[in-house]
Amino acid sequence: MATVAESPGDRFLDLGRIGGAPSWRAIALIVLALLVAVAPYALLREVVRSFGLPAVIASMSLPGIEFGFLLLLTRPVLRRSWRTVFGIGKISCRRIAAAASLYFALNCLTAVGASMLMGFPARDLSGVDFAMAFGVALLLVPFQAAAEEFSYRGVVLQTLGRATRARALLYVIPGILFAAMHSSQGVGAWIYAEVFAASCFLTWLVMREGNLAAAIGAHAGNNISAVVFGNADSPIYPHALFLDSGPTTMIDVLCSIGTMVAFVVIWSLVDRPAADRHGFVAVST
């Protein structure tokens, strides 16, 4: 009888079997949480408009509100604790912050370098509107990133893991769903390639770590940098640094992939392997 080591990623997927709920309940959880969140979101959006607050508050609030309902509804819908969706071990705020900081720093270098090469005009960084939008992003974006990771790299990935352990499917299917979710952004067709690549990168992080912490951090770091360096002509990010970065292009996709590759290299070098933190579990075959 041979003994093999079960990786953190496999242990993460195994948590999807807890409770034995049918797969359709995973879809029901995501849809139900979104529907329940619509009413509070609509109310908050009107408050934001009435007081002239940064639009990023409204744009980032829906996933954050949805995240709260996802946590509340996980047990009654999936018949298991929301902690099992986060993965093995404890969710470390320190790891979330480390991943967010690294990805944000790498995106800063990429965005500034691209702006210098392509000549995007910049705003005055001392502006009160920019400072307020950036502060709001720091507060709200982590919850927005957590909601999307909980849904796509948590619920969806664990549900797929109950049916297959084929790595290609575990990367491709969440990637397609994640890219489709960004279809309303209206920033060019290349956005689908960029988001699909980001989804594969985040899935790699989850499978390496065995939980969502680093993926939430990297996702948050990317989205905070979008608030800072995005298109200031956009109604979502009207106080971004660059005035007209235009629609997503192939160059943007290549820059994003370069940032992801740099993150993977640095994270792998400075972070001890997930197996050392959680330990391999020997299973008999």
Care to describe what's here?
The protein contains eleven helices and two strands. It has a two-stranded antiparallel sheet with strand order 1-2. It is mainly α. It has one domain. 72% of the residues lie in helices and 3% in strands.
Radius of gyration: 19 Å
Rounded to the nearest angstrom, the distance between the terminal CA atoms is 6 Å
Strand content bin: under 5%
Largest sheet: 2 strands, antiparallel
Number of helices: 11
- Tell me how many strands there are: 2
Assign a percent range to the helix content.
over 70%
> What's the average pLDDT?
82
Instruction: Kindly give the count of domains.
Output: 1
Shape: globular
Unreliable parts? 279-285
- Give the class from helix and strand content and strand pairing: mainly alpha
Order of helices and strands: EHHHHHHHHHHHE
Strand order of the largest sheet: 1-2
How are the SSEs placed, and which strands pair?
Layout: E1 3-6, H1 8-14, H2 24-51, H3 55-78, H4 82-86, H5 93-118, H6 128-163, H7 167-181, H8 190-209, H9 213-229, H10 250-270, H11 274-278, E2 281-284
Antiparallel strand pairs: 1-2
Helix pairs in contact: 1-6, 1-8, 2-3, 3-6, 5-9, 5-10, 6-7, 6-9, 7-8, 8-9, 8-10
Please tag this protein with its features.
globular; disordered C terminus; 72% helix; 285 residues; two-stranded antiparallel sheet; mainly alpha
In short:
This protein has helices at 8-14, 24-51, 55-78, 82-86, 93-118, 128-163, 167-181, 190-209, 213-229, 250-270, 274-278; strands at 3-6, 281-284. The protein has 285 residues and is an all-alpha fold. It has one domain (3-284).
